[in-house]
User: Fold these one by one.
Assistant:
Number 1:
Amino acid sequence: MMNKTIAIQDTYGERFQHCWGCGPKNENGLHLKSYPNEDGSEVIAEIVPDKAYTGGVPQNLFGGMIAMIFDCHGTATAAYFKHKDKGLELTADTVIGRFITARLEIDFKKPTPMGEVVKVVAKASEIGERKVIVEMQMFAKDELRAKARMVAVAIKDNM
């Protein structure tokens, strides 16, 4: 279960809120939101992608959109777990450290159907000084559709 009180993306500093996939201040973006679960052990995102994001097979989600969902959700997950690792809470006043993708590996297991809730569950498998390794699973209709592993790195605020 998700704790939908604070989306991690809503705690990004002003400069970092314009991502097309997850930026709250990008008017044309998707506004993907990632939330820690109740006990803070996982981060969850849910989205129903618009029909414009179909792949070569019309009833399935485009693989590039799957990668974008993993990308945005994974960096938010990395930011959350690094924040938590420092002993900090996620609050409405948080300005969380920002992470970017250094590496993203995706295993496509099954086609992801259009018109369904896509749920991504993520957790950190390693938290280092500047990098966090994130493991993710994507589900639709309660079936595993894809898995991903991300190496995310912290950026400096002046990047």
Number 2:
Amino acid sequence: MINHIYIEGYKSIKEVDFDLDSINVLIGSNGVGKSNFISFFKMVNNIYEERLENYSIRKGAETLLHFGSKNTAEIKARLEFDNTNAYFFTLQPTASNALILGTETGYFNSDKGSQFTYAGTWFPKNISRNSKESKLKASKSSVSNYINSYLDSFKIYHFHDTSDSSPLRTPADINDNIILREDGANLAAYLYYLQEIHEKHFKRIEFVIKSVAPYFERFQLQPDRLNESRINLEWTEVNHPDILFNASHFSDGTLRFIALATLLMQPKMPEVILIDEPELGLHPVAINTLAGLIKKASAKSQIIISTQSVNLVGNFEPENIITVDRVDGQSVFNRLEKENLEGWLSDFTLGDLWLKNIIKGQPY
């Protein structure tokens, strides 16, 4: 688990320094920086995958630096994992509006009870300096191997595109089944893999889908009859077992929920699951079910999500919620404390308190 994170100079985040738990639900109004916090992990994944130069040129270093290079000389960040290992890096702008790694360092802590410091029980292991791309993957040290296992899973799942030509609705390569893709492009192939190899998990996913889409009976997944290298998301409706439907017949919300259920109920969970606004288009009952899936998944994966849903927020405890506000041009993050809300929680949910302006994360 990422137990502590520090970010300085990234987009709207001038500086943030706080602990992360197994469930982290970011709430706040539009434009306060929730998505910037989530996108930070996308940048880290691009660093890890040795695509920093391409990513930073495409995004623009001036856009990634807090109010541009005139105000911010570099981006700094450190992530602490399980109080045992840590990853620190700095990113500096170039004349071509790209970013390079000024410093890339791994740390090992011999004392799990300590907080992150640069001295004491934390031992640094230099990975690279002044490098266009990360050397982390190539490093053979035990510290780097530990960090790699986390950074490899930093993918932001985003199932918003449900248009007719979206990846979720189009046929998939049947062998594209190692992991569920960030946009759900291989949903049919991945579910087919679960059906054939992890039947118990597959049946549980079907059962949960039925609970929010009672017309759904079961999946009918098999290679395309005319092209066995492709597979469609085919299914049958209750009382109509002889008629095959496909992904184009699912509503937007149902299709998104299927992707979310598959992500959160798969047998081999990612170390970290990041989802930007998972509630989009879901019925309130489906949102409540989604909250239950998130809680259960948090026993195996760390969950970081941003949301605008009062209903979703109402399903969690104060310690799960991080409010995000914009103060003096920068994003400010605060985790709720239960003791400050005990007088309210006997009569109201956290969602109610958010609507009543009792907690932060407001548009003013």
